[in-house]
Amino acid sequence: MTSAPIELTRVSSRFLTEDHPQPQHDIERPDLFSFGPSRDETILAAIHPEWRRNLFALLEQPTSSQAAFMVHVLHIALIVISAVVTVLETVPAFHQVKTSVWFGLETSLVALFTMEYVARCFAWSGTWMGLFRWMFSFFGIIDFLSVAPYYLELILAQDTSVFFRFSILRMFRLLRVFRPFRSNNTVLLTIEVMYISVRQSQHALFALGFFVVMVLTVFSTLLYFAERGTWDDILETFINTDGDPSQFASIPAAACFVLGREFSLVWERMTRDSPHSEPSSPITSTFIPRRDPFTPPSGDLSNRKLAHNQTELSNQITELRSIVEAQGHLIARLAAAIEGKGKGRQRDVE
């Protein structure tokens, strides 16, 4: 006798569960720096002369020995000093320092960085391909451009800081601050996480940027048509009720005004005590400057002052005309009176 199967009813759960989708593909980690610590280990194993291997470890692997760590700390200190010197050269308070002092500091720093660059060239010269790849890597180019302006000054025998093309080269010396990052795994991981986050959110960031630009354009257009003023045929620009050129002569000018208002309070505090902080024209100004009531006004004449002077001159001409007309009437009355007295005397004589 066979037993009949027992039919069971499926009981559906009333609880909600969350499904975790499996990732379709792994996130690719970018290689932001050409030479990482793991790659340095591979290159170190391929270097055969012992002195070159030790030199490579001393310069490229701060954790290999105590001497390498001290060289790394000294290198970071030189980078910080170089950046501080570059910044202080532009501060007006340090313009009184003699040029020979700055030249001595720059010569010392350039000499040390040149020695470091030559030493790294020897460390990477195990093969021509390795030397070529390092010299044209990010850090190799930065190391070369950081010392190139100094030697160009020696070759040209003149100060190249006043030339714009050489100022661009001088700016590259500040990029040396990125070199310590390659030896810090935490910093490298943070940079990679930031890069991946921006890359994964690029569509949302693009949509947000597009929305901000559109809102800025709309409100700048409304501000332009509301505040541009009236057209002046003589000045060939829009003027406000005071006779000054309008701050909103165009939609881009209105957009700059809207963006500038975000930083106007900070800029006003920074430039309040500066003698050269007052804006030269209302178009470039994003705030109304405060004027000290005890200081006399400046000698330059703006359009508002010219319009006021023209109005005052017209009023003076009108008053002078009325005075001249009144004096003319008075002279006419005196002439008539004198003429009447003369006729009366002639009658008396006759």
TrEMBL record:
Residues 71-259 form the Ion transport domain. Its main location: membrane. Residues 272-304 are annotated as: Disordered. InterPro entries: Ion_trans_dom, VG_K_chnl, Volt_channel_dom_sf. One of its GO terms (cellular component) is voltage-gated potassium channel complex. One of its GO terms (biological process) is action potential. It is found in: Membrane. The chain crosses the membrane at residues 67-88, 100-119, 131-148, 204-226. Residues 277-287 have a biased composition (Polar residues). Keywords: Ion channel, Ion transport, Membrane, Potassium, Potassium channel, Potassium transport, Transmembrane, Transmembrane helix, Transport, Voltage-gated channel. GO terms for molecular function: voltage-gated potassium channel activity. It comes from the Eukaryota. It is a multi-pass membrane protein. This is Potassium voltage-gated channel subfamily B member 2. It comes from Mycena indigotica.
